[in-house]
Structure to design on (247 residues):
């Protein structure tokens, strides 16, 4: 039942956009789906859309993997060690509240206008959020299950795999979903400010030309990619990760 509802919801959004564009009657301000679709076809045929989307997706994947790996490790450590958490909590709070734009600019100033700076800036913006989510997940673990694992003298790796990690599934899924939603937006800002390719670079370029249709074409095309990842990969993995709760 979920797929038809999702499709109908997206169609309703498309209809709302169409009506708003028709009422506005000014394609330079709000072009309709037909005008934006024509731009998507044009940019796809020229290969520009795929080239720039490829670069953006590559940066998203790198930054996401780095942020999730570091954030999960830190979250586990802070959740399992209250003493370590007391010392590290102010650092995490600072990183959570430091504006993304500041981190991006500082990374470009310190590392340079290169790919390393771009990926590090995006990862730093997301790592603290992952850390907090996983830390709260560790705190919510069922202590009775942990005590049982200790009674049966399970090794640390066995406890991590069979006791801790399954219970963290919903928290990891939440971090994954939020991470993808936040990271690709920050990647666009990174590309807007200091890269020579990518969707953010193209948005910057056509913003200077006041070309609303092309800006929307690139933005919505990459949004469609991220929606596909959400529904085809993330949500399916989340259902498998939490299947043990309903077994």
């Amino acid at each position: 039942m979920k797929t038809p509802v999702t499709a109908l919801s997206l169609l309703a959004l498309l209809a709302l956009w169409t009506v708003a564009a028709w009422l506005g009657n000014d394609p330079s301000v709000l072009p309709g789906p037909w005008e934006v679709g024509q731009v998507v076809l044009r940019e796809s045929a020229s290969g520009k859309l795929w080239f720039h989307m490829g670069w953006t997706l590559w940066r998203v994947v790198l930054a996401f993997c780095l942020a999730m790996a570091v954030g999960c490790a830190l979250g586990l450590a802070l959740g399992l060690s209250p003493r370590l958490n007391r010392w590290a909590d102010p650092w995490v709070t600072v990183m959570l509240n430091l504006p993304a734009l500041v981190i991006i600019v500082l990374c470009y100033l310190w590392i340079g206008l290169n790919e390393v700076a771009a990926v590090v800036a995006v990862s730093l913006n997301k790592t603290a959020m992952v850390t907090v989510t996983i830390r709260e997940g560790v705190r919510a673990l069922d202590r009775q299950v942990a005590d049982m694992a200790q009674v049966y003298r399970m090794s640390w790796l066995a406890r991590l795999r069979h006791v801790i990690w399954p219970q963290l599934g919903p928290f990891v899924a939440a971090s994954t979903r939020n991470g993808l939603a936040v990271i690709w937006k920050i990647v666009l800002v990174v590309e807007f400010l200091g890269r020579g390719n990518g969707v953010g670079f193209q948005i910057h370029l056509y913003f200077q030309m006041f070309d609303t249709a092309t800006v929307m074409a690139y933005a919505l095309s990459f949004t469609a990619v991220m929606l596909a990842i959400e529904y085809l990969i993330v949500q399916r993995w989340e259902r498998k990760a939490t299947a043990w709760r309903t077994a």
Notes: The domain at 45-241 is CATH 1.10.3720.10 (MetI-like fold).
